[in-house]
């Protein structure tokens, strides 16, 4: 069998060589840039309204504001944020989508940026019995479990090279425990508990699938 040059040996070699070169260049690229994922944290939040009347017209009235802190821990990778959207959910049901209006910005190396989000309005929501129970339970505790998902449109800069804008396939999930603030007559706000800064889940934002060119 091993009788020297089978007609296809050379093409197998070429293919194999190409794969090795590709893997090596990927490894070198990785070693040069050492890309690390961005870190998203909800550093401050205030919830002033979260009303749902299951015997009324099934409308959720909500009003909250968030400070979302984005940290780029990279030494050699920068990120352009073209769009950040917040998708808010209670009991896995989405009640709001807000596109943050801050203009597109560039986040350089080792930098931290705070983005504010005002999420307010009303939404018709058909809660099941168990969702209403959850709402009632959390209402009496004064703290609501609200999940904010962040959808991004970003591009990365590796040295002089920029990728295209892309939307990371996965959304970043921030699972918040938001205490409802009550305004007293004299104007001071109080709540049953304090909001604790919450790290959002990690997803691949800057090493996302790259569709060529
Ligand atoms: C967010 O940050 C701003 C200042 O940048 C501050 O005025 C505000 O109180 C913070 N908190 C919330 C919940 O928006
Ligand atoms: C809910 O809506 C119903 C019908 O509109 C009303 O009778 C009831 O008082 C409302 N409950 C609350 C807590 O607002
Ligand atoms: C639902 O009811 C509230 C009062 O309970 C009212 O303010 C609101 O406009 C109603 N929404 C709709 C969509 O009918
Ligand atoms: C939401 O809350 C903010 C700050 O407390 C307030 O300025 C705004 O008027 C509220 N919006 C609604 C629709 O109640
Ligand atoms: C880092 O962020 C600060 C404020 O957040 C900004 O003033 C500065 O220009 C940024 N630096 C780079 C290199 O982007
Ligand atoms: C406002 O009222 C609350 C009780 O409702 C009280 O604890 C607080 O000290 C008051 N604040 C001021 C500035 O009077």
TrEMBL record:
Keywords from the UniProt entry: Membrane, Transmembrane, Transmembrane helix
Any one Pfam family match given in the protein's UniProt record, by short name: LEA_2
Residue intervals passing through the bilayer: 12-33
Cell compartment(s), UniProt: Membrane
Matching InterPro entries: LEA_2, NDR1-like
Record membrane topology: Single-pass membrane protein
Primary location class: membrane
All residue ranges annotated as the Late embryogenesis abundant protein LEA-2 subgroup domain in the record: 68-160
PANTHER family to which the protein is assigned, alphabetical: NDR1_HIN1-LIKE PROTEIN 10, OS05G0367900 PROTEIN
The protein's name: Late embryogenesis abundant protein LEA-2 subgroup domain-containing protein
Organism for this UniProt entry: Ziziphus jujuba var. spinosa
């Amino acid at each position: 069998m091993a009788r020297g040059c089978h007609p296809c040996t050379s093409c197998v070699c070429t293919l194999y060589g190409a794969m090795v070169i590709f893997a090596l260049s990927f490894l070198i690229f990785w070693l040069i840039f050492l890309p690390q994922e961005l870190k998203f944290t909800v550093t401050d939040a205030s919830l002033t309204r979260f009303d749902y009347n299951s015997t009324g017209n099934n409308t959720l009235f909500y009003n909250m504001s968030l400070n979302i802190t984005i940290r780029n821990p990279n030494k050699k990778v920068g990120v352009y944020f073209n769009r950040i959207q917040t998708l808010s959910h209670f009991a896995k049901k989405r009640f709001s989508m807000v596109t943050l209006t801050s203009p597109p910005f560039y986040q350089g190396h080792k930098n931290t940026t705070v983005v504010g989000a005002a999420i307010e309005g009303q939404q018709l929501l058909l809660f099941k019995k168990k969702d209403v129970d959850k709402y009632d339970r959390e209402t009496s505790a004064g703290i609501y479990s609200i999940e904010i998902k962040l959808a991004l449109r970003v591009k990365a800069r590796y040295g002089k090279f920029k990728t295209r804008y892309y939307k990371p396939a996965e959304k970043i999930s921030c699972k918040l425990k938001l205490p409802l603030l009550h305004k007293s007559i004299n104007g001071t706000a109080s709540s049953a508990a304090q909001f604790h800064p919450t790290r959002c889940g990690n997803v691949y934002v800057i090493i996302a699938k790259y569709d060529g060119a």
